[in-house]
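Issue: ligand-bound run for 6-O-phosphono-beta-D-glucopyranose - logging full I/O for the record.

Environment: standard queue, default settings, no custom constraints.

Inputs:
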Amino acid sequence: MTGFIADRLLLFGATGDLAKRMLLPSLAALDADGLLDPKLEIVGTARSELDDQAFRNFAREALEKFLPGDRRGSTATFLNRLGYQALDASALDGYAELAAKVGTPAQGLAIFLSTAPSLFEATIHGLAHGGLTGANVRIGLEKPLGTDLESSRVINDAVATAFPEESTFRIDHYLGKETVQNLLALRFANILFEPLWNAAHIDHVQITVAETVGLEGRVGFYDDVGALRDMVQNHMLQLLSLVAMEPPAMFDATAVRDEKVKVLRSLRLSSPDETVTGQYRAGAIAGQAVPGYDEELGKPSDTETFVAIKAHIDNWRWKGVPFYLRTGKRLPKRTTEIIVQFRRVPHSIFAGKGARSEPNRLVIGVQPDENISLSLMAKVPGLDRGGIRLRPVPLDIAMPNAFAGTQRRIAYERLLLDLIEGDQTLFVRRDEVEAQWDWVDAIRASWDEHGLVPKSYTAGSWGPSAAIALAERDGVTWHE
Ligand code: BG6
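Outputs:
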């Protein structure tokens, strides 16, 4: 942790969807638990012409809708922290007034940008113009940070004119998820796994981020982006880097991010036949009919809503261990899972007794269920007159049960608190973002070169059959 604890928070995009669903509820929940500095004042800004009271009403409605009742506490104190200043972020002249509204913080200011990336540059200029930069100001940036390496560099360069890297907090909300952080505890707070965590003992890794939702009204945004840039470039590559990284010397921002970036830079370009893209057509999810992507969009499109990739990390630890990644919209269930498939025992002493042995498998459920399950082989009880029978049994830890009574938190609670307090460990450094884009851009370029277009899949299925074939031709079955 460096520097100051902010006593002012300035939220751009304060009337937007993210603010409504996540940011305001997370801040209110932190407040209810006494985790916000009593002096913290929060100023929202957006284009809508609201006054303080109207913004507080907006926030109250958001809390009623999106914050579970048991976390709400007395929202009056939270609402009293809120102020609002309307702003056209693209015009310089409003920033002086915004600065006046923010006032002079006693300790420091944290800014959170949750606006269209097209506004980032103008906003940074405006902040500099209004004097809302300097040693006691830090900035949080919500994705998407560009649509490719080049555009992300333009954004990062613009940010860097006013905010040094140590004041820049790039958000990947997956890093705020409890089980994602727990992955580090599992790997580095136990002696058991690390000696086996390599190509000699691991056969492959699977990472699935499946969603049941479709476009969710994000028509304009999503069609220019697609699953590769929306989910793989950020969340999935962050998960991959946490699974694959070398042990950092300590849990701090530099050590952890140094190790992650090494993994990201070791990613080899997957060939076109190692990637499958898909787009959902009409189908049903949980018995409910849902329209196809182009119907939701209102026009035909070549944007992928599903992608599966066989990824490779070219380093000593992971040589020859494929990382199968898949993500998609309108899949049968919402689930984020990491599967670490170990190799078979080198020799089965039970083979002569007719017993079949399965390799161990570690399943890390990130959401909706937070659990860790390790399959172990065990002998089926009995006298074994007809031969020994072995069966995998799970060593199962359901996190909510293991930590009953401990508050489960929204990912943004953690991230907002870290932004306010200045801890960058769970934020993405510029070199990581650029390494992520580098790989993703190369994949897109190879799709274009080979004229790859998404295959259609029925909403409610696990994507195009080619995605199943992608794993099966290696003798691998996706975990479902
Ligand atoms: C966002 C993507 O970053 O993550 C969305 O833009 C996606 O398309 C969302 O739905 C998924 O987040 P979560 O936390 O619901 O898994």
